[in-house]
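Lab notes, practical 5.
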Amino acid sequence: MTHWIASSNRVNAKILDTKHIWGVPKRNKTLTHRVKPGDTILVYVRQEKEGDTILPSAITGAYEVVSQPYEDHTRLFITPEHMGDEVFPFRMKLRPVAAFAKPLEFKPLIPDLKFITNKTMWSGHLRIAMREIPEEDYRFILKRAGQEA
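Output from the prediction step:
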């Protein structure tokens, strides 16, 4: 089993939570060849501004992959403006493993996460649709969110 962290915005994270489907952009197609049923995915949402409020970057939940990756060009996700007509066609079905009562703020976790080797420029580690993370990071995040791994 492999553990992943998937980068999203809050709108698409809510779609994932409702539809139990995760999709990655065309440019990340080869990444999905490494994902297998039984793998786990933590959903990371970037910092966003909502009105006058700044919502911090956070982990919103954990999911298990329950299907082989597949291709579907049906528009499901909201495409960020800078991504043109992207539909995130390389998808996988998920089932919730841990629904966090509230998002777990990400920045306080950084000093303890092994996959973030550059603690100053940490956001660079999360610019790809999804990346593999060590099991100890996965378990640490679940524990901090009040979930048992």
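Observations recorded by the TA: Residues 74 and 87 are 7 Å apart (CA to CA). The chain has a mean pLDDT of 93.
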